[in-house]
Design goal:
The structure holds two protein chains of two kinds. Chain A is mainly beta. In chain A, 8% of the residues lie in helices and 52% in strands. Chain A has one helix and 28 strands. Chain A has one helix at 2-26; strands at residues 29-34, 39-44, 49-55, 62-65, 71-76, 81-86, 91-97, 103-108, 114-119, 124-129, 135-140, 145-150, 156-161, 166-171, 176-182, 187-192, 198-203, 208-213, 219-224, 229-235, 240-245, 250-255, 261-266, 271-276, 282-287, 292-297, 302-308, 316-317. In chain A, the strands form seven sheets. Chain A has a five-stranded mixed beta sheet, with no helix packed on it. A four-stranded antiparallel beta sheet of chain A has the order 8-9-10-11, with no helix packed on it. Chain A has a four-stranded antiparallel beta sheet with strand order 12-13-14-15, with no helix packed on it. In chain A, strand 6 and strand 7 form a beta hairpin. Chain A starts with a helix and ends in a 5-residue tail after the last strand. Chain B is an alpha+beta fold. In chain B, strand 6 (106-112) and strand 7 form a beta hairpin. Chain B is elongated. The chains are: A mainly beta, B alpha+beta. The A-B interface holds A 35-36, 59, 77-78, 101-102, 104, 120, 144, 146, 162-163, 186, 227, 247-248, 269-270, 288-289, 312 and B 18, 21-23, 25-28, 30, 88-89, 98, 128, 145, 147, 155.
């Protein structure tokens, strides 16, 4: 009797797993942290609707997803660390405390085995094992590290050091800083291209984007954008860079060949986090003041959808499942 | 020497903004009002950056510049306090402008955790706001939005400088301002 019971449960579990993983592949989801609501909105990008909202405490800010899309990590500065959410059950699994209220920028490596959390106050990046959730290392970087980006070959981690006006390149084999270079004033969000050759950094205070080559972190160009550029994302085979201009309620689009600002697209009020759909064409922008997400078509450079989320949407990081 | 004294407040502001950026959580207030008067008439009352006669808490304004980006206005409040604001963007076609507080006088000095703390006249930090008039049929609506931090940057703020103090103060100014604007426009 008991054995039979277990079998039934296993079968149900398997069925559920198959169902959910199929759904996951078919429809990528966007996970939007709503800082003033203490919640995460889950958007089904196929229907453009919020299908669920997960309550989490600690003023959720940064977002990172495991490569298999099964786990989302949300930095929670007021809970001194981050939250772990199971994307299949839409459930909060646990909070991990890092003992500091400076947790903001967050990213996962491409094996899914290591999580990186920048500590705004301690000026370090914590390296966390995603199975044991133990901190394996704390890498010293510049002052107030914020945006994080991992190269696709999983070799390098790039860190924007906001108060040092610099970017650090971390060697992910030995977990040390390989290089550091000055960029514009107060770099915050950054992106590395898919070949791992170029880095794009949004400088909040100098209203521009610094473009670096990754080999020696040499500056290739500086492109002026609008007021208070916050975060960046690449679309259409890395040919266009999207930059949220927080104080201009807009997104600047930069041609990555000519380094010209191609367009300025009006979005919601106080845009912050930006991520690209796996179709490489739809760009999702979290609007902090308007409690919404704007969806931009990277080809036509128009807003094709606006989705209502929760209060104070920030979504700083890569927030769409692959 | 003169140069140094001029620079000091700028440097202070810079650091205040930087520290505020990610310790406490950024707050916001949004207030709106429907007015039974054409949008052009309402915009006519508020569009001049150096004229704040429609805002009840303000006694007088001294301004450097008009409606061009970067203009500075200093509001002297009825209780004697001052607020300095910089115009960020003025858009006549959209009937909106945005601005930022760059300096404030101290309302009171309190002791908190054994430290002297200066409470600014509006207990907020890193404050940016915008106001917009929209046409609605024969009438209009005005939307006033602000984003800011509480005035106290460290953990465990005093009640005079916490999130509730920041939110209720901004809300009070906005409500009184919009109510008066409605009264003036519907006259």
């Amino acid at each position: 009797m008991q054995v039979r019971h277990i079998h039934l449960k296993t079968a149900a579990g398997l069925l559920a797993a198959v169902f959910f993983s199929t759904e996951l592949r078919a429809q990528p989801f966007a996970y939007i942290s709503n800082q003033l609501d203490d919640s995460v909105s889950i958007i089904d990008t196929a229907s453009g609707k919020v299908i669920d909202t997960v309550k989490i405490t600690g003023k959720p800010a940064g977002v990172a997803l495991s490569p298999d899309g099964k786990t989302v990590y949300i930095s929670t500065p007021k809970a001194n660390g981050f939250a772990v959410i199971d994307t299949q059950q839409h459930q909060l699994l646990k909070y991990i405390s890092l003992g500091s209220s400076g947790a903001l920028g967050i990213a996962v490596d491409n094996s899914g085995k290591r999580l990186f959390v920048a500590d705004w106050y301690k000026n370090t990046v914590a390296v966390i094992d995603t199975e044991s959730f133990k901190v394996k290392a704390a890498i010293p970087v510049g002052e107030s590290p914020s945006g994080l980006a991992v190269s696709r070959d999983n070799r390098w981690l790039y860190v924007a050091n906001r108060l040092s006006n610099s970017v650090s390149q971390i060697d992910l084999q030995n977990l040390t800083e390989r290089n550091v270079t000055k960029v514009g004033e107060h770099p915050f969000g950054l992106s590395v291209d898919s070949k791992g050759e170029r880095l794009y950094v949004a400088n909040v205070e100098s209203d521009d984007v610094t473009i670096l080559e990754t080999q020696h972190l040499k500056k290739i160009a500086t492109v002026k954008v609008k007021t208070l550029p916050y975060a960046t994302a690449l679309a259409l085979n890395d040919s266009r860079l999207f930059v949220t201009n927080q104080e201009d309620d807009s997104v600047s689009v930069i041609d990555t060949v000519t380094f010209k600002e191609l367009a300025v697209i009006e979005v919601g009020d106080k845009p912050e986090g930006v991520s690209v759909h796996p179709d490489d064409q739809h760009v999702y922008v979290a609007n902090w003041f308007d409690n919404s997400v704007s969806v931009i078509d990277a080809k036509t450079l128009t807003v094709v959808d606006t989705i209502a989320t929760g209060n104070g949407s920030r979504a700083f990081g890569q927030f769409i499942s692959r | 020497m003169k140069k140094i004294t001029l620079l000091a407040p700028v440097v202070l502001c810079f650091f205040a903004a930087a520290v505020n950026a990610h310790g406490p959580v950024r707050q916001k207030t949004q207030e709106s009002i429907k007015i039974n008067a054409p949008a052009e008439k309402v915009w006519g009352i508020i569009k001049n950056y150096n004229d704040m006669s429609w805002l009840p808490v303000v006694a007088s304004v001294s301004a450097k510049g008009g409606n061009e980006d970067g203009s500075i206005r200093v509001l002297t409040l009825k209780d004697g306090g001052t607020i300095t604001e910089e115009l960020k963007k003025h858009d006549d076609a959209k009937m909106s402008y945005s601005y930022k507080i760059t300096e404030m006088s101290t309302k009171q000095t309190i002791t908190h955790n054994g430290q002297e703390e200066k409470v600014p006249v509006l207990p907020v930090g890193n404050y940016a706001a915008d106001i917009q008039v929209k046409a609605e049929g024969a009438g209009s609506s005005v939307i006033w939005k602000a984003g800011y931090y509480r005035a106290y940057m460290n953990n465990n703020p005093p009640t005079e400088m916490n999130e509730e103090a920041a939110n209720s103060s901004v809300e009070k100014v906005f409500k009184a301002g919009l109510d008066n604007l409605k009264a003036l426009a519907e006259k």
